[in-house]
UniProtKB/TrEMBL annotation:
Co-factor binding comment: Binds 1 zinc ion per subunit.
Entry keyword DNA repair: no
Name under which the protein is recorded: Peptidase M48 domain-containing protein
Similarity comment text for this entry: Belongs to the peptidase M48 family.
InterPro entries: HtpX_protease, Peptidase_M48
Domain Peptidase M48: 167-304
Key words, A-Z: Cell membrane, Coiled coil, Hydrolase, Membrane, Metal-binding, Metalloprotease, Protease, Transmembrane, Transmembrane helix, Zinc
């Protein structure tokens, strides 16, 4: 879309113009795959990822972790060989295994709020989870991002929810319900890539590629046997690096056929929770994150120029100003952001489809009315509970 270059900033335009041919081909391939998937799902009876895709994700996770286990077993066997030189190799193997170990994340502790801290919010989460068959998060936290996310942490794999204060504050009540339906929907939308097996395997695969990258660049050239080893190591590592690159390509296929499809399904779950119209408006609000970021930058610059300490109460006033600002964003700005979404498309390694595709599919699928309702009085009670954390987030943003 050459005529749309005026939609994006000069830095992004410069980066795109300098993009290498392979990167450009990957970006266009991601766009084609996502658009093809959206057209197919518009007529599908069920948006849940297919069995073959989920089986591929399972095999991917098992395969990557099996390589790590093989290194661990080999290192243990070398310890019993009795040759001290091999003990050094075994220690290196243990170091590799430690670097590749699955990261489950720390269990929710400081900074996370439990049911007893936010009973009103958890009552709403219970209602949403009960309607869609999803577990209620065991903990919630508020951060400063214009986003929301859900994940599982710790050995018990506890579901947790993160609410970005800027996004939460600019959403209407029905849009908040759509947001909660979408996030909790990730626990029941068949996204195997979010499961502990595949997610930890993806991290291990990144570490494998870093360890096996066949390059000696940046190191001083050596002579003698050490120099020969310096030349041979990249050659020896290259086949293993190709194997890891192939696994990375498989993960890209899994993302298209599992993660993108599951993301579309999470949007439909949001529509069933709060109505199709609410889910569409939610995605449109997500589109103006850069506009909100510009407003935040102006507020921070003004506060910095005053050279006065930022009192905590100003964190509350900031949210009033942000809501008023978002209310004044004209419709043509939302239309422009949709064109930006079309221009950027979906990367081949993206876990989320482009916003224009998410809106398009919601409009092409059956229209849903809300199945969960929350009264204004209940939302006001939720706001009172969250207010200390929202104010503190606002204070962190502008100080």
């Amino acid at each position: 879309m050459p005529g749309d270059h005026g939609l994006i900033g000069p830095e992004e335009l410069k980066r795109l113009d300098a993009e290498k041919r392979l990167a450009r081909r990957r970006r266009e391939a991601g766009r084609r795959r996502a658009e093809t998937l959206e057209r197919r799902l518009a007529q599908a009876e069920d948006l849940r990822p297919g069995g073959l895709a989920r089986l591929s994700a399972l095999l991917f996770g098992i395969g990557v972790h099996a390589l790590t286990v093989a290194v661990l077993v080999g290192s243990v066997l070398l310890l019993f060989d009795g040759v001290w030189v091999l003990w050094i190799v075994a220690l290196l193997g243990f170091g590799v295994v430690w670097q590749l170990r699955p990261r489950l994340g720390r269990k929710p502790g400081a900074g996370w709020q439990r049911r007893e801290d936010l009973p009103r919010l958890f009552a709403v989460l219970d209602r949403v989870g009960g309607a869609i068959g999803a577990p209620t998060p065991s903990a919630v936290r508020v951060d400063t991002g214009f986003n929301a996310s859900t994940q599982r942490l710790g050995l018990r794999h506890e579901p947790v929810l993160t609410l970005g204060a800027p996004l939460w504050q600019v959403l209407e009540h029905d849009e908040r319900l759509a947001l909660l339906g979408h996030e909790l929907g990730h626990h029941v939308n068949g996204d195997a890539a979010r499961g502990v097996l595949v997610a930890t395997a993806r991290h291990s695969l990144r570490e494998w590629r870093v360890l096996l990258y066949p390059s000696s660049g940046g190191t001083r050239a050596m002579s003698g046997p050490a120099g020969l080893a310096q030349l041979l190591v990249p050659v020896v590592l290259f086949p293993f690096y190709i194997l890891m690159t192939s696994l990375d390509l498989l993960y890209g296929w899994i993302q298209v056929h599992v993660s993108l499809r599951a993301e579309f399904l999470a949007d439909e779950i949001a529509a069933r929770t709060a109505s199709t119209d609410s889910a569409v408006r939610l995605i449109s609000k997500l589109d103006v994150h850069m506009t909100v970021a510009s407003h935040l930058a102006r507020v921070k610059a003004a506060r910095k120029a005053s050279r006065k300490p930022v009192p905590l109460e100003e964190g509350a006033a900031f949210w009033d100003g942000l809501r008023d600002y978002v209310a004044t964003i004209p419709e043509h700005e939302y239309a422009r952001q949709e064109r930006v979404s079309v221009f950027r498309g979906t990367r081949v390694d993206a876990s989320h489809p482009a916003h224009y595709l998410r809106r398009r599919l919601l409009k092409e699928r059956p229209h849903y009315e809300a199945t969960v309702t929350v009264s204004d009085e209940e939302w006001e009670a939720v706001d009172r509970e969250l207010n200390p954390f929202i104010v503190e987030a606002g204070h962190r943003l502008i100080r």
